[in-house]
Amino acid sequence: MPQIIERAPVYAGIILWPVARKKAIVPPVLSRATSLNRRLAKPLIIPFDGPYWYFQVPGGWPGARAHVAHGDPTAVSIHSNDLLPLVMEAHQTLGSSIDLSNCGQIQVTLKNRDRRPGRIALGIVVTDSTAAGKTSLYLGGKPILSSGPTHPSGEFSPEGEIITFQVPTSAKIHQFDEITVLFFPDTERSTVGSRIAIQQFELIPR
């Protein structure tokens, strides 16, 4: 079962919501609430504001009795209390559907503060929640280049990275309104949650 080390309790699953960001005065930008259209006319930035899931197979999700908290995944230490691998996912709903044939790339901006041994890869799944059975499409996995090397003890600044995923021109789904980020750690670190936070997605027109 997943466990938060700092507080020691054991839970059937954990759902971690990001801490609300402070609002800043910035020039007008595309927002998910006002600018998500079925077709993309220009790159669209979507700040990540969804939950992180921590659970163990074969459940497939944290479960109805999951512990719900707010926090930064780069600042907490969550791990399995047995030898079973810990699954970590990040879930983003878009609020409106995007035409898959019009989206050529999805860029994921992340913050990596994890320097434990072992590489980590990211996978992306886009889902059409309006379709029967919530049809999904896996866009593949890519390594996080800043993961792996050991880091000297002590505090250090999180490292930013952008990973780009190509969207196929044809697929079994025609649109998507959800994005799921899958974390794939090496076996040697598969019982601990990755100290990595998703910052934003950028949808690039084809």
What does this structure look like?
- Residues 24-35 have low confidence and may be disordered.
- Strand 9 (120-128) and strand 10 form a beta hairpin.
- The chain has one helix spanning 32-35, and strands spanning 2-4, 14-17, 44-47, 52-55, 67-70, 78-80, 87-99, 103-112, 120-128, 135-143, 159-166, 175-185, 196-205.
- It has one helix and 13 strands; from the N terminus they run E-E-H-E-E-E-E-E-E-E-E-E-E-E.
- The protein has 206 residues and is mainly beta.
- The strands form three sheets. The protein has a seven-stranded mixed β-sheet with strand order 5-2-4-7-12-9-10, with no helix packed on it. It has a four-stranded antiparallel β-sheet with strand order 3-13-8-11, with no helix packed on it.
From the structure above, extract its key features.
4-stranded antiparallel β-sheet, 206 residues, 2% helix, mainly beta, 13 strands, 1 helix, globular, single chain
